[in-house]
Amino acid sequence: MSEHSANPSPAAAGRSRAVKAVIPAAGLATRFLPATKAVPKELLPVVDRPVLQYIVEEATQAGIEDVLLITGRGKTSMVDHFDRRPDLEARLEAKGDAERLEAVRRPSELAEIYTCRQPEQLGLGHAVGYAESHVGDQPFAVLLGDEFVKPSEPLLPAMLELQARTGGVVLAFFEVDPAETKRYGIASVEPAEAELTDVGEVVKVTGMVEKPKPEDAPSNLAVLGRYVLPGRIFDAIRRTEPGSGGEIQLTDAMELLRTEGVPVHAIVYRGTRYDTGMPLGYLQTVVQIAAERDDLGAEFRAWLGEFVKADASVGSNT
Ligand code: G1P
Questions:
Q1: Domain assignments of the chain as residue spans, ordered by start
Q2: Which of 135, 165, 173, 226 places its Cα 20 to 30 Å from the Cα of 144?
Q3: Angle (nearest 5°) at CA 270 between 268 and 275
């Protein structure tokens, strides 16, 4: 008997792991104006790579090789980033700059990138709905482009495994300050079935609500911007009425599936996540990545230590 016999493998259950990812990236990024007036927020650099490249790398590191970007007006440069640049490559090749040549080529070699356009921004559920013709009835991952998960503490592999076992909706939660529930989808939960708990800190979802006021929030467990969804979500999105903010919410479509008997589970994530869609979270991400870089981390950390010390002594004199 195999040591995994208690956990039916996806193959045994007749299910396969999601192999495609969808990245909704059509938003207007009002929280980062004026930087995002002409530059998509997904292209803001974290050290020397755009935020979006980290998100695509996160998907490919979890074994996904097919990525659909849902784009909108003014976002063409985002797609260009994942295209080849033969003119630039020829120049770098002629100069013998192998390192930069590899950096310029890398985005175009990460995955098969597809795009489609969301003509109007009517909500996250509405955006995900545009992926239907690309994804079909197979399970797929959704990664929100303005949420950064530390690469050394990945979340997606366990979520993909869990979804292949349950066939349902798989979310990730993180704990928020109760005063902040109105910024997120919030869930009520109960313990998960014992055979699922080897994947991580797994909980079973018993209800979800988008952006509740603190007094109405069922918990402080917030939906993180990573999802693995079954193809049935598209039908649920079509049947979802506008909700919070007058938008078609993915949370509401998932809740609809749950009330119809589709299992919804989540992994409680205790790793590091930042919201790169606003200035503070963006700065935290840049500092985190810069401090860990092999090429400039040591120098940057030394400078940062001095900066913080000097700043603290200025603070204590005032
Ligand atoms: C979206 C989702 C929300 C989730 C959040 C995570 O909200 O609707 O449920 O908690 O992402 O970042 P948005 O940030 O688009 O308002």
A1: 10-277, 278-318
A2: 165
A3: 95
Peptide bond into 34 cis (omega under 30): yes
What is the CA(266)–ligand 1 centre distance, in A? 15
Please give the structure tokens belonging to residue 313.
């002594």
pLDDT tens by residue, 247-258:
999 999 999 999
**Number of the ligand 1 atom closest to the C-alpha atom of 27:** 15
**Within 6 Å (CB) of ligand 1, which residues are found?**
124, 144, 147, 184-185, 210, 222-225, 249-251
Helix or strand (DSSP H, E) at 165:
helix 156-166
Both tokens of residue 297?
């981390």
Distances (CA, A) of 114 to 62, 83, 217: 18, 11, 37
| Atom of ligand 1 lying closest to residue 225 CA | 6
Q: How is domain 10-277 classified at the CATH fold level?
A: Spore Coat Polysaccharide Biosynthesis Protein SpsA; Chain A (3.90.550)
Distance of CA 256 from the midpoint of ligand 1 (Å) = 17
Kindly provide the b/e burial profile for residues 243-254, where b requires at least 16 CB atoms within 10 angstroms of the residue's own CB. Answer: beeebbbbbbbb
CA torsion sign for 126, 131, 137, 143 is negative
- Joined together, the tokens standing for residue 158 give 């366990």
Distance of CA 225 from the midpoint of ligand 1 (Å): 6
Q: 185 CA to middle of ligand 1, Å?
A: 6
- Helix axis angle, 297-317 to 279-292, nearest 10°: 130
* Pair 56, 67: CB distance under 8 Å: yes
**pLDDT grade for 316, boundaries at 50, 70 and 90:** low
Determine contact, residues 295/47, Cβ cutoff 8 Å: no
